[in-house]
Amino acid sequence: MSKPVLDTALREFMYGKLHRVTVTGAELNYVGSITVDPELLRVSGILPNTAVDVVNITNGERITTYVIEGTEKSGVICLNGAAAHQFNKGDMAIIMGYESVPANQLPGRISRAVHVDAGNQIVSVDEYVTPSLETLGQPENNRENTPYAVVDA
Q1: Which CATH number fits the domain 10-137, given the four candidates 3.30.450.20, 2.60.40.1930, 2.170.150.20, 2.40.40.20?
Q2: Are 122 and 115 in contact, with CB atoms under 8 Å apart?
Q3: Is 132 a catalytic residue?
Q4: Is the separation of the CB atoms in 29 and 83 below 8 Å?
Q5: Residue numbering of the annotated binding site for substrate
Q6: Binding residue numbers
Q7: What average pLDDT does the structure give for the chain?
């Protein structure tokens, strides 16, 4: 069997995420989007007006929306407009940003996970290096059965 060749075809790459944030608000009467503390955006690499997937850990809902800036260091995570139907204040969520990357540029690319406490203040940042097809299966790449250590405020 021949090895697959990575080419210039674009693939969606999850470059940054805010992991286990607490939703601070859900505003139905709003134009739409998700409001996020700029500090969280900066550290994750997510820019305003870009698309993100938002997964509600509490109820399993998943939406795609766009980001707007909130107040610096406020910890704000507010779902606006129609998204407010899928999220409630106090729900836990994951916000993920993606970019289209040529497949041959994926090996070695870094994906960043920003971990927060119950007040959405940053407690740690993990960076994961994308392996090449040749280095798949190496023990240092294996994250199976790694429980998430819940961080308290």
Answers
A1: 2.40.40.20
A2: yes
A3: no
A4: no
A5: 65, 81-83
A6: 65, 81-83
A7: 92
Is-catalytic flag, 128?
Answer: no
Per-block mean pLDDT, blocks of 10 residues, the chain (153 long): 75 97 96 94 98 97 97 97 96 98 96 97 95 87 72 50
- Which residues have C-beta within 8 Å of that of residue 98, sequence separation ≥ 6? 12, 13, 14, 15, 51, 52, 53
pTM value? 0.90
pLDDT of residue 4: 66
Query: Which residues are paired to 116 by β-bridges?
Result: 122
Q: Which of 15, 66, 98, 124 is catalytic?
A: 66
> Which two tokens mark 63?
């939406």
State the catalytic residue, choosing from 2, 15, 33, 148: 33
Long-range contacts of 27-30 (CB under 8 A, 24+ apart): 27/78, 27/79, 27/80, 27/81, 27/84, 28/81, 28/82, 28/84, 28/85, 30/80, 30/81, 30/84
**Token pair of 8 as six digits:** 């210039």
Q: Which residue ranges make up each domain of the chain? A: 10-137
Tokens for 152?
């308290």
